[in-house]
Amino acid sequence: SWLGKLYDAANLRQSFRIADLAELMDEEQQRQWGATKRDVAGELGMMRHRASGDARILQETWRRLRSRAA
Q1: Cα angle at 65 between 63 and 40, to 5 degrees?
Q2: How far apart are alpha carbons 56 and 58 in whole angstroms?
Q3: Which residues of 10-40 are buried (b: 16+ CB within 10 A; e: fewer)?
Q4: 36 near 63, Cβ under 8 Å?
Q5: What 3-state DSSP class applies to 1?
Q6: CA–CA separation, 44 vs 4, rounded Å?
Q7: CA of 54: how far to CAs of 9, 20, 70, in Å?
Q8: Nearest to 25 by CA among 59, 61, 65, 54
Q9: CA 19 to CA 27: how far, in whole Å?
Q10: Is the dihedral of CA 21, 70, 57, 51 positive or negative?
Q11: What is the residue-level pLDDT of the chain in tens, covering all 70 positions?
């Protein structure tokens, strides 16, 4: 990964692992992800493909799915 290459170049050991968010979700959350994300993006009215907007959409989608499961 690009992050691993940065750590290698700095002669540092990467002490964490980056994983796909899907690994943290159960099957029902995975099934609901697309619709929930579309709803969030529409409600927030953020332009896609801006890093901050994408991050905010992902954060809010994850929050909503987690609150439904609780």
Answers
A1: 70
A2: 5
A3: eeeeeeeeeeeeeeebeeebeebbeebbeeb
A4: no
A5: coil
A6: 33
A7: 29, 15, 25
A8: 65
A9: 17
A10: negative
A11: 889 999 999 999 999 988 899 999 999 999 999 999 999 999 998 766 678 888 999 999 999 999 987 7
- E-strand stretches of the chain: none
CA dist 32 to 11, 12, 14, 22, 57, Å? 41, 39, 33, 12, 15
Place of tokens 């994850």: 62
- DSSP calls for 19-70: --GGGGS-HHHHHHHHHHHHHHHHHHTPPTT-HHHHHHHHHHHHHHHHHHH-
14 within 8 A of 2, measured Cβ to Cβ: no
Q: How many helices (H) and strands (E) does the chain have?
A: 3, 0
Give me 18's structure tokens: 């980056």
